[in-house]
């Protein structure tokens, strides 16, 4: 790819898609993100939620009332990607730093859910979700092999917690667009459903996020040949739920209750506004992590 390469966006279709996807959506965890904010640096790799800490979410600095990931800079910290143009379908070494207000790279991050850095990637039509964990070199440069299959504009979220100059934990999600040149064929958001299929597993969602109400949202995983496959903790929780708002790609990362409820993973969410959301539930069975995807429409 050269400097002069062109992104051939299917503009007309994109406008239609945006119109379809336009709007607001959903929620936040039931409590302020104290679990993230107070997670000590010395947290063991075996992070779990002690009883009473409750569910919480990554990102945001205001108690989780708003989505995050919409800005490249927040609270004096800025995401600096080494490159933002990637070739389609080719694995490249994605590199980035988080710099402070003096443009010094941050080199110390808190371990939250077993990792100091959570990387989420999705194309702007909410396809192609990936949840990755890059490695940091001593100079604060993070790197990860990344392959973006198809052309389009992709959203990269860096979800992390650092300590501010006063030593207070600060959970941030900074986001930037990555460009993959080529013919972009956007996929319309799938219809809202409470069942998702992935790799022979059926994941059923029970509950519906509502506005102004803290509502439970449960996910039950079954398989045709095994009605109750054993869910395993993944990154210190029985499930990780990322919700991305259609229209602006506002980001939420919610963690569940520490224990399964009748075999289901239980989250708590509030929907602050009407609209469409894409939910990505990471779960682990027999050592393999899979992602179930749902569209949720909040009226
Ligand atoms: Cu992660």
| Intertermini distance | 43 Å
Structural class per helix/strand content? mainly beta
Query: CATH class of the largest domain, please?
Result: Mainly Beta
Shape: globular
Quick structural overview:
This protein is mostly beta strands and 299 residues long. The chain is built from two helices and 20 strands. Bound molecules: copper (II) ion (CU).
Features:
mainly beta, disordered N terminus, 2 domains, 5-stranded antiparallel beta sheet, 20 strands, Immunoglobulin-like, globular, binds copper (II) ion, 299 residues, 6-stranded antiparallel beta sheet
Protein described:
The protein is mainly β. The chain folds into two domains: about 10-20 and about 40-180, Macroglobulin (MG2) domain (Immunoglobulin-like, Sandwich); about 195-299, Macroglobulin (MG2) domain (Immunoglobulin-like, Sandwich), CATH 2.60.40. The chain is about 5% helix and about 40% strand. It has two helices and 20 strands. The chain has helices at about 10-20, 35; strands spanning about 55-60, 75, 75-80, 85, 90-100, 120-125, 130, 135, 140-145, 150-165, 170-180, 195-200, 200-205, 215-225, 230, 240-245, 250-255, 265-270, 275-285, 290-299. Strands 1, 15, 16, 17, 19 and 20 form a six-stranded antiparallel sheet that branches. The longest helix is centred in the N-terminal third of the chain and has 11 residues, at about 10-20. The radius of gyration is 19 Å and the shape is globular. The termini are far apart. The model is unreliable at about 1-65 (pLDDT under 50). The structure holds copper (II) ion. Copper (II) ion binds near residues 115, 118 and 131. Copper (II) ion (CU) binds near residues 115 and 133.
């Amino acid at each position: 790819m050269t400097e002069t390469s062109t992104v051939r966006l299917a503009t007309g279709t994109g406008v239609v898609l945006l119109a379809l996807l336009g709007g607001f959506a959903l929620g936040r965890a039931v409590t302020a993100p104290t679990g993230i904010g107070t997670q000590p640096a010395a947290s063991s790799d075996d992070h779990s939620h002690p009883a009473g800490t409750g569910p919480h979410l990554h990102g945001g600095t205001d108690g989780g009332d708003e989505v995050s990931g919409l800005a490249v800079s927040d609270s004096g910290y800025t995401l600096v990607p080494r490159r933002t143009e990637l070739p389609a379908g080719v694995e490249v070494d994605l590199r980035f730093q988080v710099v402070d207000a003096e443009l010094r790279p941050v080199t110390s991050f808190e371990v939250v859910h077993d990792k100091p850095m959570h990387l989420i990637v999705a194309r702007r039509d909410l396809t192609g979700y990936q949840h990755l964990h890059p490695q940091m070199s001593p100079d604060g440069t993070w790197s990860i092999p990344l392959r973006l299959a198809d052309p389009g504009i992709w959203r990269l979220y860096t979800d992390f917690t650092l300590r501010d100059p006063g030593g207070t934990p600060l959970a941030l999600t900074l986001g930037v667009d990555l460009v993959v040149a080529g013919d972009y064929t956007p996929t319309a958001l799938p219809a809202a459903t409470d069942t998702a299929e992935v790799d022979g597993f059926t994941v059923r969602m029970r509950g519906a996020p509502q506005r102004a109400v803290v509502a439970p949202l449960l996910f039950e995983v079954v398989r045709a040949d095994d009605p109750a496959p054993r869910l395993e903790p993944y990154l210190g929780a029985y499930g990780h739920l990322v919700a991305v708002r259609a229209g602006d790609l506002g980001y939420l990362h919610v963690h569940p209750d520490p224990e399964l409820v009748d075999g289901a993973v239980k989250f708590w969410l509030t929907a602050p506004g009407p609209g469409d959301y894409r939910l990505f539930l990471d779960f682990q069975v027999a050592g393999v992590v899979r992602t179930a995807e749902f569209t949720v429409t909040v009226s």
